[in-house]
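Q: What residues go here?
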């Protein structure tokens, strides 16, 4: 219940801070500046994460293929000819 109350209060503060009315803080231009400056950094982090996920996926696929080939070899090696 406390977390819900704090969450509602923070959302209300955020709305109050950016409202373009005389009794508000009128931080909207500052928020836009922050978003403009943060967008390239956010894109960089998302790109790095996507890169590392892609590399890990490629490694997993190669490992799975190698295990599949080993299982195939073992299954053909274990069979007795003529049975």
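A:
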């Amino acid at each position: 219940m406390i977390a819900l109350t704090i969450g509602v209060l923070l959302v209300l503060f955020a709305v109050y801070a950016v409202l373009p009315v005389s009794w508000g803080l009128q931080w909207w231009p500052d928020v836009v500046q922050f978003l403009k400056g943060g967008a390239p950094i956010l894109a960089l982090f998302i790109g790095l994460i996507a890169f590392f996920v892609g590399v890990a996926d490629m490694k997993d696929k190669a490992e799975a293929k190698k295990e599949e080939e080993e299982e195939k070899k073992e299954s053909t090696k274990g069979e007795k000819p003529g049975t």
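A: Context that may help when evaluating the design: Helices lie at 2-18, 28-78. The chain has a mean pLDDT of 91.
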